[in-house]
Amino acid sequence: MHLPVYAHPTLTVLVDDSDSFLRSLSFQLDPMLANKTFHDTTEALRWLCSSAPDSALPLHVNFDMQNLPADQCNVTLELDRIYRIAEQRERFATPSVLVVDYSMPQMNGLEFCAAVAHLPCKKILFTGAADEKVAVSAFNRGLIDRYIKKSDDHALDLLEMEIATMQDCYFDSRSDTLREMAALHDYRFLTDPALAEVVRELKRTLGLVEHYIFPNPTGILFIDQHGKTTLMVIETEHSMQAQYEIARDSDAPRSLLRALLERRVLTFFSDPFGDGMYISSMAENWHRYSAAPRMCHGRETYYWALFDVPGHYFDQRPGTYAQFLQGLQPVATAA
C-alpha cells in the first residue's frame, strides 16, 4: 500500500436525527477518534461546506513557461509547505469521514451523501437492517464508501475499524498527485510497500499520530499526540554516496568520511541556517549529528534513523492533538 505524503488526526462527523443516539455513539467511540455530531442535516451541510479543506496543492508553476505545451511546463513541488501543515492548529478539525444514518426526516442518508459528493470526505452509511439493499446499491454506485448495519453484534467495533481505514484512504487519495511527483525524485519510498510498513509500525509502536514528508534531509517528520517531533531520515545507496561526497569536498574529518563510506552512520546536521548537510564548523562535533542506521530491504535498500527535530525548523510550534481533544470535551457546569 502507498504511503500518503502527509497524515494527521481528523474529525469524524456523525449525522443522525436522534440526538440521544448521537450522544451515546459519540461517548462509546474510541476517545482518540475525535468526532462532531449533528442531528439536523441542514446544519450539518452548512458546516461541512464551510469547513471543506483547501484543495490547493503546494505546486509552483514557472510563469516564463506558461505558454508552452503542458508536457514542457516546469512545475516545482514546494516540499517545505507540506511539513508546515503541522503549524496549522485547525488541521485536526478537518472533516475526513462522515457517518450518516439512512432514515432521517429532512433528507435520507443517501440524499445527504449526494449533497456532499463534491467534498473529499469518505462516507459511511450506518443503516438499519431493512436498509441493506439500499446501502448495497449506493455502494455499487460510488455514492458511499462503506456501509455498516446498526444491528450487527459488533457494530461499534466495525465502525471504529472502518473509520480508521477511511481516514487512511482520505489522505491516500489526497496525496495522489503529490506522491507521483515526489516519487520521481528522492521520495521513491512513498510507493514502496516495504518502507511504508516500517513507517506504519513506527507509528503504532511509538504512538506517533502525524507524519509529513520532509525536504532536507529527505525523510519523514513524525509528531506524537503531545507534540514531540521526530525526524526519520531516509537514505538510499545513491544518496548516501552523495552525503559522503559533500562531506569529502568540505574537508570533513577522516573519521566521519570513513563512517559514511562504510554506511555506519546517518547524519542530520540540524544547526540553524544550515541545509541539513555537513559544513566545516561541525568537524569536531559531528558525532552529535549522527545515528546508527537501520536497513529496510524493499525495491531498493533504504538506510534510516530517528532524530529529534530542533524548534528552529518551525515558525511556530505545532499545536498538539492532546490539546485539541481536550478542547472537544464538554465543560461541566455547576448545578
Number of strand elements: 15
Helix content: 25-40%
Order of helices and strands: EEHEHEEHEHEHEHHHEEEHHEEEEH
How many DSSP H or I helices?
11
Number of domains: 2
- Name the shape in a single word: elongated
C-alpha Rg (nearest Å): 23 Å
What can you tell me about this protein's structure?
The chain is an alpha/beta fold. It has two domains: 129 residues, Rossmann fold; 135 residues, no CATH class. 33% of the residues lie in helices and 21% in strands. Strand 2, helix 1 and strand 3 form a beta-alpha-beta unit.
What is this entry, summarized?
By secondary structure, the protein is of the alpha/beta class. Helix content is 33%, strand content 21%.
Tags for this model:
about 35% helix; about 325 residues; disordered C terminus; 2 domains; Rossmann fold; 6-stranded antiparallel β-sheet; alpha/beta; 15 strands; elongated
